[in-house]
Amino acid sequence: MDRPALTPQLGRTRVMAILRSADASGLPAAARALAAGGITCLEITLTTRDALDALAWIRDDLGPEVAVGAGTVMSCGQARDALAAGAEFLVAPVVDADVVRGAAKSGVPCYPGAWTPTEVAAAWRAGAAAVKLFPASTGGPGHLRQLRAPLPEIPLMAVGGVDIAHAREYVDAGAYAVGIGSPLLRGADRAPGSGPLESLTARARDLLDAVGATMRAPGPRTEETGR
Prior knowledge:
alpha/beta; 14% strand
């Protein structure tokens, strides 16, 4: 299968920041603060009002060093709209083989959510670049470790209930990357003023420090080949 390569920025940092809010008004400032802290792979969830407008604006504002994708992509129509807005990757909480295959045909990495070995394998066969273990905190690092044992060739991202304090545990269990939303943002996407944004930048650095030493090791696939 001509599987799309993993998002390069995700490969370098092994962290995806998830930006989800009631509306998108505070997302551009939060995205800048995250990028200033070194997190350069940003997911804008489609449950956010005006998400695609924000995605396009953030991508233009931050430039090619920051990858901006769409999350909570639940249909082929949403996938097409996200790609038209400039999404560089797609994320979903479920395995929809049509969405995954469509992204692969477009050359865009897709990270669908799965929980069981059967779901993980189905996502991989459909063309996922990596599979999002979701919700990760339900089974914890032990569940991820158990999945990795029989499926070592499939990169797994730990998402859902992961926070900065426990991110390293998922890395040590074999996670290729972690995705973190509200524990990282803590309202900085909504709060006015520089204080919350400065704190967000600091938390971004703390998260990268927490996962960095272990995540420098090569993952199960390389960004160059995507295989």
